From TrEMBL:
Family annotation (InterPro entries): Glyco_trans_1 (IPR001296), Glycosyltransferase_grp1 (IPR050194)
Span of domain Glycosyl transferase family: 188-340
UniProt keyword list: Transferase
Protein source organism: Neobacillus bataviensis LMG 21833
Protein name as annotated: Glycosyl transferase, group 1
Transmembrane segments: none
Origin superkingdom: Bacteria
One Gene Ontology molecular-function label: glycosyltransferase activity
Length: 374
């Protein structure tokens, strides 16, 4: 059985089905830089399909130019892992100094590696010496995994052949959300009533961190404008973060009774909110993918995304939603009103997200490990 290692900063919950599926066929180690980050709180469940190993070294937390947390990791122990455990192949994700150091170690030690990219062409990145490290890491990889079309475009810009790239879809547990949808659809009106939402109200939903990068203030300003003219438009915001108190203050200041603010919640509770929603908003300034797009579409909900959301290039067309290229209050408000008037075919939305699944991701992952550039 092949021994494969994946290097990542942290294990997000949506990766678990992929890692478990791959771990059934290979001996899989997941090498992490940290168990949790300041703006995230995720638990790593016990599993028999892969082993988690925490690397040791330096960790630094900063704020980036989007006022979001930036985590810098330099985990020297990756060298000792490669020396003494020597996997058949290392898969390097989450571009960081540990990633670049790992690529250099692989080059010196003769360990083959795959570069796993989720960075988009317009994602703010460091230039200069850091870009030289990135170019070295990309150039010397045996193969490349990417999360979607835009992440692939980023790698192509570094001169990589398209034949040396495999798309590993960023996917959620579609079946779980499909089942939740079926479970709660019969109680849609009851759930609305419990939240003070009327039967014919048009419900917007946002799910994610309450931070500047997500354009929270832009969404609030647009909603204030909409609500002042139409009280049947409601807005559910689910999440948490440094802007939480600002959102509550904004609601109180402008008497936005239609703004419903919820903390992060388990998937089954969140499903109750998706069931009553008519449109997902995700207009971030930077978003490698946006897993909430997949989640919402599993409930047949159309989506409105900024051009900086990675999922847009693969999941959004005229039948599943809209992409904003001019991102300001006026355009956002107008687009929401335009989409409110349209009728979207739920089946088309479900069919689109159904094809973007973990089974495909696992199959593509294993095919490259077994038959690819090894």
């Amino acid at each position: 059985m092949k021994k494969i290692a994946v290097l990542t900063n942290i294990i997000p919950p949506y990766r678990l089905p992929l890692f478990n599926g791959v771990g059934e066929k290979v001996k899989l180690d997941i090498l992490i830089c940290t168990k949790n980050e300041k703006n995230r709180s995720w638990d790593i469940p016990r599993t028999s399909n892969f082993k988690v190993k925490k690397l040791f070294g330096i960790s630094v937390t900063l704020k980036n130019n989007l006022n979001d947390y930036r985590f810098i990791y330099l985990k020297f122990s990756i060298l000792f892992y490669l020396l003494f455990k020597r996997p058949d192949q290392l898969i390097i994700g989450d571009a960081s100094f540990t990633s670049y150091f790992a690529a250099l170690c692989c080059k010196i030690l003769g360990v083959k590696y795959i570069w796993w990219n989720e960075t988009l062409p317009f994602t703010p990145i460091n230039k200069g010496k850091v870009d030289k490290l990135r170019k070295f890491s990309i150039k010397n990889a045996n193969h490349h995994f990417v999360s979607g079309t835009l992440a692939k475009e980023f790698i192509l810009n570094y001169g990589v052949s398209k034949n040396n790239i495999t798309v590993i879809p960023d996917a959620v547990d579609n079946e779980m959300y499909f089942n939740f949808s079926q479970k709660f659809q019969p109680y849609k009106e009851e759930i609305k009533d419990s939240m003070g939402i009327l039967k014919d109200d048009f419900v917007l939903i946002y799910v994610g961190q309450f931070i500047d990068r997500k354009n929270i203030n832009l969404m609030l300003e647009a909603y204030k404008e909409l609500y002042s003219h139409d009280k049947t438009i409601k807005f559910i915001m689910v999440g948490g973060g440094e802007l939480t108190s600002n959102i509550f203050s904004f609601k109180e200041k402008y008497n936005l009774d239609g703004l419903i603010i919820k903390d992060f919640m388990p998937s089954e509770e969140l499903a109750r909110l998706y069931v009553v929603s008519d449109l997902l908003l995700l207009v971030s300034e930077s978003e490698p993918w946006g897993m909430v797009v997949n989640e919402a579409m599993c409930f047949g909900i159309p989506v409105l995304l900024s051009r900086y959301v990675g999922a847009g290039a693969d999941l959004v067309n005229k039948n599943t939603g809209e992409i904003l290229y001019d991102i300001n209050k006026e355009v956002l408000s107008k687009t929401i009103l335009d989409m409110k008037k349209r009728t979207f075919n739920e089946k088309i939305i479900l069919d689109k997200v159904y094809k973007w699944n973990n089974k495909h991701a696992i199959r593509s992952f294993l095919q490259e490990l077994q038959y690819g550039h090894n």
